[in-house]
Amino acid sequence: MSFVTKNVNWWFAKSGQDDDIVLSTKVTLYRNLADFPFIRKMTDDDKLRVDSLIYDAFCKENYSFFYYDSLSESAKKVFIDNNILVGNCSSIIINNKDDSISCLTNQSDHLKISVFSPGLECENAAKKIYEVDEKIQEKLQFAASTDFGYLTSNLCNCGSGLKISVRMFIPSIFLSGHFPYIQNMLEEHHLQAVKVFASYENYKDDFSQYIIDIKTTNAVEGTEIDQIANIFSVCQVILKMERKICQEFADNNSTIILNFLRQKYYKALSSLLLTYEEACDLICSIKWGINLKLLKEIAPKELNSLFYLEKDAHLAYLCNNFSFKFEKDVKNCLELQIKRLRAIVIHQTIDEK
Prior knowledge:
- The protein is an alpha+beta fold.
- Helix content is about 45%, strand content about 15%.
- An 8-stranded antiparallel β-sheet has the order 2-3-4-5-1-8-10-9, with helices on one face.
């Protein structure tokens, strides 16, 4: 494995269930403190008081607090690139022992708790997030009612306050024209599919467009157990379909597909500079080739972790804090250093196999 990914213990660098197809699972809880207005009606004093109460609830539980306004732009970019931060908030809370657990205060609601997990791990991620929820409810009282459950600023998040998102890589389903069937199934189960790299979808050969997030649309219908079971069962159907169609592709189009995959593979080996978009396309193409059993095997966790490790903020941190011997026309430009290091990381990850 690359020097950048060796010995890392981040959640996204670990193995997970069905991680050949399911990149990650994210579970989120939305909570609001009782006796405070929702975010849009809060004063600055209200926000400070909410932050203080939440800080007191977490302070002895081995968490670190980062106040948003005190963060440098580069630090904010790291949180954004790790999918922890979306938009503004008052503070970011990270578990010191488990980086898969994070919280935001005063964003859409007073408290947003998130847990990430590699692979298809809806139940385990939910178990972990409810352990956090139960612990802080010993010190905080959340807004709730008998009729509507937990109260949130978005009606769709009321009830359990639980949202689940499963990130899947399903190129065979898209290429075979079966995705409309998936969309119909999702609608029947009150789920939705969102392309992660939707801005690249106009490029037919860009395989990153086949990464989608399967999401719950509301937290009102059924219990938490029902909501978890619903999305898990649907994702099981999707991954089984992807594997079946993937095998059909390998059996019936091996020469055409192998030619395409080798072009992508050798581009990954020979490129000197790569944008993040180009890197994602290459990672996805190689991942599909491995699933087709037409390229030599690389552990799914090694390729999946690259979606995070290849982002600008991580590579900029490495360039700024470690000494690399770059070519003379690259060494004085951080943007080129990042592109160069990105190519090196992909090269080392696939070449040492």
